[in-house]
What we know:
Order of helices and strands: HHEHHHEHEHEEHE
Structural class: alpha/beta
Shape: globular
Strand order of the largest sheet: 1-6-5-2
Radius of gyration: 17 Å
Mean pLDDT: 82
Strand content: 5-15%
Distance between the termini: 25 Å
Number of helices: 8
Amino acid sequence: xxxxxxxxxxxxxxxxxxxxxxxxxxxxxxxxxxxxxxxxxxxxxxxxxxxxxxxxxxxxxxxxxxxxxxxxxxxxxxxxxxxxxxxxxxxxxxxxxxxxxxxxxxxxxxxxxxxxxxxxxxxxxxxxxxxxxxxxxxxxxxxxxxxxxxxxxxxxxxxxxxxxxxxxxxxxxxxxxxxxxxxxxxxxxxxxxxxxxxxxxxxxxxxxxxxxxxxxxxxxxxxxxxxxxxxxxxxxxxxxxxxxxxxxxx
Length: 250
């Protein structure tokens, strides 16, 4: 398993600055220096299948997707860091406040891809997990994929909606429990995948599926299953951040 999410600095515990110019002038909540200082890498001990933090080298992952006999459709899910500290704050600012982090996140992904050729050398196509129709420009995976394609044209990044298109809005997996969606996050994940159309031939392709945050893995698993059913040979997942998740059995 590759050493996922190497720290950008050796001391990731420094507090975020509250007085720097980018914060004061409203251009960005977190400046580049604070982003690097507050970056939280993945745990040393983590699940090789879903990157969940573990308490020790022999601790089993209790994520149901990682149990023998599960219907896990992706080979492995990797992450650049933890969804906390400066990375968590930046992702939230990007997704919910419309701040311009897609370019910086693209650099983070490219850093990870460059550091892990053992994963990337087997990838035929990089595909974003699509958002719903009518999405707000600038704050979704499509924008991140476009930034990555511009930054690293040697990567086989599929244009938005070229491989996967979402045809309708579905309940959010992230808020399913809070909004009391019947069936919870798993049902929301399955509904998301059901709303996807595979718009190009993926037969025999080894696909890297991009997303922003991985929690339980239900949604990327459902999307991976959709791609496999369409003929893909393999699906691996790469996300910006892994949630410090308190796992449930299902």
